[in-house]
Amino acid sequence: MPIRIPDQLPATEQLESENIFVMTEHRAMHQDIRPLRVLLLNLMPKKIETETQIMRKLSNTPLQIEVELLHTISHESKNVSQEHLKTFYRTFDQVKDNRYDGMIITGAPVELHEFEDVDYWDELCRIMKWSTTNVHSTLHICWGAQAGIFYHYGIQKHELPKKLSGVFNHDVLKPSSPLVRGFDDKFWAPHSRHTTVDAADIEADPRLEIVAQSDEAGVYIAKSIDSRHFFVFGHPEYDTDTLRNEYNRDVNNGLDVPVPAHYFPSDDPTQEPVSTWRAHAQLLYTNWLNYYVYQTTPYDLDSLGDAE
């Protein structure tokens, strides 16, 4: 949240240079407040687990947020009951006339398929196109980030020699970005994917910038210069045991997958993993909500653009 200070206070300029959001008394008196509307497009198979993880991150903020859940109708979900979907989720046709301050598009276990071969790709493209006029800021996660950066900017994903799984150390490349305000210079974050995007492809597009990157895992955070699109290629929302559960699932299915790196003590999967990423994960969501949704979204959402 911003710090409210007297008009013309000398500290204002210095605080703003440090990316600390300050609000003068004059602005505070004229600020309208309303709940933020955030749409969560949940593409993960275990929808209850994912919605719980992300809700946890969204709830740890003083902002009042109204979250709506969205699922695709062109894909039949097998790991969640139809009753749950009917009760708590909406379809695109039910929300397409609405406008939202923010939207989150999750990952999905379809990385080894070409985008066009994913059964809900056409529906997802309609949603991403609609988001450019009906959503103020969109946060894309893991495969959702690969799909989003391909759809909006034409950047291709590339298959890795083996699955990238583990918790990796990252460098903040753009410390002036409010998105990483409060981050340590180096921080840990989970990845779990079979494909990647090349940093050179992102750097070649003047509409994009890289905010954080790992020597081992590659690009972690990229964003559009206009701050309408954010791409997080890892899974900051993961619980402590999520990577372990995925690893055990893959092993039980007979897949040749590596032990998640830097995750189990001594890389021993018989030991209990310890979370080393929770604080920075929370900061990522909080900073996105505060600086790129709450502080910049129009009070009147109808001004975002005409619905399709």
Automatic annotation (TrEMBL):
UniProt EC number: 2.3.1.31
Family: Belongs to the MetA family.
InterPro entries documented for this protein: Class_I_gatase-like, HST_MetA, MetA_family
Important for substrate specificity (site feature) positions: S192
UniProt binding sites for substrate: K163, S192, R249
Predominant cellular place of this UniProt entry's protein: cytoplasm
Enzyme class: transferase
Name assigned to this protein: Homoserine O-acetyltransferase
Species for this entry: Senegalimassilia faecalis
Pathways involved: Amino-acid biosynthesis; L-methionine biosynthesis via de novo pathway; O-acetyl-L-homoserine from L-homoserine: step 1/1
Reaction catalyzed: L-homoserine + acetyl-CoA = O-acetyl-L-homoserine + CoA
Subcellular location as annotated: Cytoplasm
Keywords: Acyltransferase, Amino-acid biosynthesis, Cytoplasm, Methionine biosynthesis, Transferase
Phosphoprotein as UniProt keyword: no
GO molecular function: homoserine O-acetyltransferase activity; homoserine O-succinyltransferase activity
PANTHER family: HOMOSERINE O-SUCCINYLTRANSFERASE (PTHR20919)
